[in-house]
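Slide 14.
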Amino acid sequence: MSMTGSIPKIEILDGRERRRRWTTAEKLSMVEETYAPDVTVSLVARRNGVQPNQLFHWRKLRRKGR
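Slide 15: predicted structure.
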């Protein structure tokens, strides 16, 4: 029996991967964008190359005034 469909691509990272550092202004901008009508946290995260859980964390910090 043959399988149809495509095989997912696997990306192999070679060497040390660097982390992206976001300024406070960039974080606040992304957080504010998540509160716009018809916008989801996942959508904003994808647009900016951030994990949704990170964006949820920043939203929580904002609510606490940090």
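Speaker note: The chain has a mean pLDDT of 85.
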